[in-house]
Task: inverse folding
């Protein structure tokens, strides 16, 4: 999980610096970041302040960046659900969105093309509002089979290449171990999440 947070810190630090250099106004207010996702973003079974958005804000603030990270995660949400609520989940004035959706699509066996179409539409809506997107990659559960897995797992690098967005593909050992190997809090993953209340080092290197 440390690698997961550090990866997004690196992307966001770079993005915030570039955004600050290219905007015509100095950054007088906090940079607003929204995490649009499912239970992974919502912090399923975690106490308040222990979820990913809160930990990310803490880590970025510790690096001297004035940011506000809003948790717009909804447990059980799909790519279709996220797309449907995007407009009111991402308020005006947002500069960055961490788009973390698709895991529940795979668990429900939704056709990968449907998921890709929904995520593509979400990215286009955000880009039309001049909001930068960091796309979190997902991996299909192994029991869905190779054909489904290959099609689903290819969604995220394809979208990242198409839109020139960051693809934070969920392929690190730490992340997959924490989330049961399929980007979902299975029993082992839930235990790891509950242990988060004692893992204050999410935003620090080893």
Result:
């Amino acid at each position: 999980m440390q690698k997961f947070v550090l990866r997004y810190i690196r992307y966001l630090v770079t993005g915030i610096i570039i955004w600050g250099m290219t905007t015509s106004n100095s950054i007088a207010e906090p940079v607003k970041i929204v995490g649009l996702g499912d239970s992974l973003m919502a912090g399923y079974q975690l106490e308040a302040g222990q979820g990913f958005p809160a930990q990310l804000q803490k880590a970025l603030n510790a690096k001297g960046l004035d940011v506000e990270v809003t948790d717009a995660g909804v447990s059980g949400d799909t790519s279709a659900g996220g797309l449907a609520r995007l407009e009111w989940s991402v308020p005006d004035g947002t500069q960055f969105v961490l788009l973390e959706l698709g895991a529940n699509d795979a668990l429900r066996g939704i056709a990968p093309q449907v998921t890709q179409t929904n995520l593509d539409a979400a990215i286009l809506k955000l880009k039309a509002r001049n909001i930068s997107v960091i796309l979190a990659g997902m991996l299909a559960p192994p029991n869905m089979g190779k054909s489904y897995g290959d099609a689903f797992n290819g969604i995220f690098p394809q979208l990242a290449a198409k839109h020139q967005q960051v693809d934070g593909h969920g392929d690190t050992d730490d992340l997959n171990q924490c989330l049961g190997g399929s980007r979902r809090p299975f029993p082992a993953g839930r235990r790891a999440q509950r242990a988060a209340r004692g893992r204050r080092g999410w935003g620090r290197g080893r």
Observations:
- The radius of gyration is 16 Å.
